[in-house]
Amino acid sequence: MNIALTLIITAVAAALMIAGGSFYAIEGSLSLTSASLLWVGLMLALFMLYARFGEVRSVLGKKTARYGANLAIMITVFGAVIITFAVWSDAHKKRYDLSKTGRFTLSSQTKKLVKSLTTNIKAIAFYRSESGTMHAMQRQAARDLLEEYAGLSDKFTFTFIDPDANPGLASKYGVSEYRIILLFAGDKQVKVGNEKEEKLTNGLIRLLKQKQKTVYFVTGHGEKDVNSTNKDGYKAAKEALMNESYKIKDLELLQTEKIPDDASVVVVASPRRDPTPAELDKLETRYKSGGAIFAMIDPGHPPAFKTWLEKFGFKLQDDVIIDQQSQVYGANYFTPVVYAYHKKHPLTQDFSLSCYFPMANSVYIDEDPKQGRYELALTGPNSWTEMDKNQLESGQAEYNEDHEKRGPIPIMSVTTTPAGAETDSEGTKREKYGKMILVGDSDFANNTNINLAGNGDLFLNTVNWLAEEADLIAVRAKAANVSPVILTASQGRAIFWIPVIMVPSAVLMAGIGVYSRRRWFR
Fold first, then answer.
1. Regarding predicted confidence, which is higher, 68 or 333?
2. How many Cα atoms are found within 13 Å in the side-chain-facing hemisphere of 434?
């Protein structure tokens, strides 16, 4: 066989194998086309090796061949080290989330909930088994999320089912669509819409709750409306509570003899008019019998409601909190920023997010751990309680040390009262306490502000603590904020030309130069 034919067959074999490998890399699977190209190229290469075996053996005996063999051994050893490291790293995973908002890290609420599991939870995810499609990306996102959950507790396991490949199983579980995750705990089942941490955790909360608790919102005096979608409405707060598996109901105190027994928490969201003495008596009876009251009061509060709250130790003034620090965060000085929390109370001991309270007044209380009295949330040292209405209206508010108080100023306080003993479902007796939390602002949880910084978490944690749902007191998962990188046309061309063309070309030219220099000066 002449040299020209040998070169042609060798080139064809190499071209076929390169083409087959390229098809395999692009398609992501070994199709008939790529397998055929690889097989024909390999057969031609083996034929050439057999036909020119004598020449190949003489070449391998030369000094350059020995050098090549040493290089091949070094490459093989290096590849083995890389593979070993990859296997070891896969077995000992450690993730670092470098995103600005921590979007790839599970929230503290999820971690706390999953780590405290005492019953086995099984998740069945229904996703299509494909590659290189949007369905494949969704399936991988679901797997990554479920692996994070499973890594926190041995009690959490999961499996995947392809509804197309296993229609019988999908029909058995009543699933006729994709991107569905079913959570099971014994005989209980919860359906989750898609691969979002917030939805999966909320589904887990619903699954684990033995009894759905009810939160009542007092109405009839101009309180915040949980069905209003206006800026100052509480529709978003209602939906957030429902996501935590609470029932939400309105409560007309004048229309009922007493507060319903199923009321886990009663919310009084800043009445504009004074409740009647009879209505306040119903709230007080509920509190002293072991109920939970979540009260909010804005500047200009109704006098009778203020007097009633002061009966329980709260100290209220006709003030508005001014906070110069809030301007640093982009708010006006009528919006105090709270970032200091009481570290000895279970509601706020692990809370560290800043919260914003538009137009708030102070809520002082004489702290007494024996009575459960704490000032839970305080403004910064650059704030003060402005008492001069004329200065407020003119926009020229200034601190007056004679009759105004300098920060930190409490904006949220709590008190408790003994209410005898009760027997739980397991027959254990325990002390029962009435609990009341007062916040000097109601707008922090309205539709406009509830998703601002830590406002929503503080609101939900307050309800959870009052409802004795300590496992739910945490920072929740936030909606992912997509921050795309916007490039100019020249920047886009630079990203293509530099790594794809210029750098490889420079390496190639350097190699050619080294080879040529050695050949010329040999």
1. 333
2. 17
- What number of residues does the chain have? 522
CA distances from 114 to 119, 152, 205, 237 (A): 10, 6, 10, 24
For the residues of 288-312, what is the DSSP string, one character each? HTT-EEEEE--SS--HHHHHHHHTT
Cα angle at 267 between 372 and 425, to 5 degrees? 65
CA–CA separation, 432 vs 419, rounded Å? 5
pTM of the full structure: 0.64
Cis before 408? omega within 30: yes
pLDDT digits (tens, 9 = 90+) for 128-160: 887 778 888 888 888 988 998 998 899 999 999
Dig out the tokens for 289 from the structure. Answer: 């019998």
φ/ψ of residue 294, rounded to 5: -115, 100
In the sheet with 121-126, reading across from the earlier edge strand, the strands are: 156-161, 121-126, 180-185, 188-192
Contact 126, 170 (CB under 8 A): yes
What element of type H or E holds 417?
strand 410-423
Q: Is 250 helix (H, G, I), strand (E, B) or coil?
A: strand
Are 280 and 271 a contacting pair, CB within 8 Å? no
Cβ contacts of residue 66 below 8 Å, gap of 6+?
A: none
Give me the half-sphere count of Cα atoms (radius 13 Å) on the Cβ side of residue 292. Answer: 19
Enter the tokens of residue 70.
């040493």
E strand spans, 303-405: 314-315, 320-323, 337-341, 355-356, 364-365, 374-379, 383-386
Phi, psi of 394 (to 5 degrees): -85, -10
How many of the other CB atoms lie within 10 Å of CB of 479?
10
CA-to-CA distance for 211 and 208, rounded, in angstroms? 9
Task: Return the SS3 of 146.
Answer: helix
**473 closest CA partner among 108, 203, 196, 101:** 108
Q: What is the DSSP letter of 478?
A: P
Q: What is the DSSP letter of 476?
A: P
Closest to 361 (Cα-Cα) out of 327, 332, 397, 323: 323
Q: Is residue 482 over pLDDT 60?
A: no
Rounded Cα distance, 500 and 502, in Å: 6
* Strand intervals (E) in 80-187: 121-126, 156-161, 180-185
Question: What tokens does 206 get?
Answer: 């619903």
State residue 338 phi and psi, 5-degree precision. Answer: -110, 125
Please state, as a whole number, how many other Cβ atoms lie within 10 Å of the Cβ of residue 369.
Answer: 9
CA-closest candidate to residue 374, choices 410, 350, 400:
410
Rounded to whole angstroms, the Cα distance separating 115 from 152 reads: 6
Tokens 């590659």, residue located: 131
